[in-house]
Amino acid sequence: MMTGGRNFPSHNCTVRHDVDLVKLLIPADSFPRRIARWWRRICLVDHHSPVTRLVFRSDTAIKREMSRQLTYYPGTIHPLSYFRFIWECLMIVTFATAFHMIPYDVTFLFQIDDYYPFTAFHVVLLGIDFICLADVVISMYTGTYRRRSHQVDLNLGRARKRYLRMWFWIDIISSAPDPLLTKLIPPSTLEHSLVYCLHRLDYHPGCLWDLWSLMSVLKIFRFRTFLRYTRRFCQRFGLRRNVIKFIAILATVLTVFHWSTCLMFMVLRLVQGSDPALIDQRSWSQKLPFWNQTSFVRYLECSYRTLYTVTHITHDFNESMTYDDMVMSLIYTISGYILKIYLLAELLIFIRILYSSTSKYHEYRYELSNYMRHEQLPAALQKQILSFYDFRHPKIYSRWSLIRSVLGEQFYGEIRMEVLGPLLRACPLLRATFSDQQLTALGLGMSFQLFMKNDIIARWEGATGQSDERNWSMVFIVTGTVAIYTSGWKQVLHLENGEHFGEFQLLFDADKVKFPNLVAVENTELYTLSRDWLDRFLQPYPSVRQNLIDLATEHLLRMGQMQRGTVLDALEHVET
């Protein structure tokens, strides 16, 4: 359907693009088939996902990807499907729970009372193992997506081959249901854990009872997968890049701190053992009632010791320490300094991005001040220039040319029309002649101008032959006040926010309309529409130009009749 102004066409598409390919290609005349079609639908590429929009760019490309999957890979779960998103949300919770419960279980739960009876803690661990095993099965039927190259591979043969090379074995080994294996082992065997055997250097088959429990720590290699799922989750809900990065850093720091806490106690068990009577008296665990506490209290003590060692809050150099305590303190202190440097660098980058416009404003203002002092400009002129700069860039600095090149003409036109739309539609001549598309084009062709108090906006010296009608520009006042003067500099009226002037001067010569002088009464922001640009804009559309001139002539005649009627009415009521 074609719409628009006179001799200025525009297009509003009425062709429907929301064709349901699933209903079109998969018939369902029974309830089981409708269930199967629903399953196929949620396994297709999700066209609502921002990640999908980033990869495929357009609706046509997404439809083509759906058709390709339905035709050639009907049994494949798309890596960007809605089902995959729901499953990744479940895996985010699963990974976050596993990364904190598994090292705690391996390190702090080593006594018989910790395993018998079967506690809720081990029920959660068992549920994590089964979910991870289900994830292994689902991964065998899911295509692959490479984030760096934005490539999607739906060939299950290549996807499974790539998965079996490495991640399959890590997922299988770390997801073995060790709580069930623990239930099958006699309680007497639990006294000889693998850590106990490593400490005593006394190996026998009973030492391997918790091997699967120790192998479950391999799940930490899936931490990058956890961060990738978290990033996609945040991108789907439109969170900013800085927020996503902050969440990733926070998750990394908390996980590293938790594992460091568990590692500190694990080193103590490996070197000193878990029998309080055999532990070196110089060890930090002998300075307080540590071994007769619950596992959670021991975890809190190790957490506090890790915190003040890594962050270097305080150190008691008078306390005696074992060699393993010295090595751990040294490693944690160096790691703490590295962590501080990294977090400080990220914080500085975040602050610089957050206040980039303000910093550029002060940087350019300082450079401008140095330049004016170098040129030895008068103090009054320097003050006026700095006032102009502060009014033009109020505490921020932005380059509209860069923004325009990044956004493109269409979005930049929408931004312009948010400001200029009410101003352009307030002019009856433009509102009656141009369509919305034409007004947007006019808005893109207008120039922003800033004038300080008493600056001359337009000067007409036609009587001396020094001015040309083609240099005239129509003004639209955004903020401020503009005074209109005659050619003899006699003040006529004031124009304020939202008003305009000069539409008739854009179309007629000086012999038909008068060209006044315009002066800024105060600091004024306005947009100008030049006569030369309007002529070039209307050159391909002669009928639009003629309609505009006819309507302007009609308005001038009507205004003349109103003025003549006002004069005659005044003469009738005047006293002789």
TrEMBL record:
<dbReference type="GO" id="GO:0005249">
    <property type="term" value="F:voltage-gated potassium channel activity"/>
</dbReference>
<dbReference type="InterPro" id="IPR000595">
    <property type="entry name" value="cNMP-bd_dom"/>
</dbReference>
<feature type="transmembrane region" description="Helical">
    <location>
        <begin position="330"/>
        <end position="355"/>
    </location>
</feature>
<protein>
    <recommendedName>
        <fullName>Cyclic nucleotide-binding domain-containing protein</fullName>
    </recommendedName>
</protein>
<keyword id="KW-1133">Transmembrane helix</keyword>
<feature type="transmembrane region" description="Helical">
    <location>
        <begin position="85"/>
        <end position="103"/>
    </location>
</feature>
<dbReference type="GO" id="GO:0098855">
    <property type="term" value="C:HCN channel complex"/>
</dbReference>
<keyword id="KW-0812">Transmembrane</keyword>
<dbReference type="InterPro" id="IPR051413">
    <property type="entry name" value="K/Na_HCN_channel"/>
</dbReference>
<feature type="domain" description="Cyclic nucleotide-binding">
    <location>
        <begin position="473"/>
        <end position="555"/>
    </location>
</feature>
<keyword id="KW-0472">Membrane</keyword>
<dbReference type="GO" id="GO:0003254">
    <property type="term" value="P:regulation of membrane depolarization"/>
</dbReference>
<dbReference type="InterPro" id="IPR014710">
    <property type="entry name" value="RmlC-like_jellyroll"/>
</dbReference>
<dbReference type="InterPro" id="IPR018490">
    <property type="entry name" value="cNMP-bd_dom_sf"/>
</dbReference>
<dbReference type="GO" id="GO:0035725">
    <property type="term" value="P:sodium ion transmembrane transport"/>
</dbReference>
<feature type="transmembrane region" description="Helical">
    <location>
        <begin position="242"/>
        <end position="268"/>
    </location>
</feature>
<feature type="transmembrane region" description="Helical">
    <location>
        <begin position="115"/>
        <end position="142"/>
    </location>
</feature>
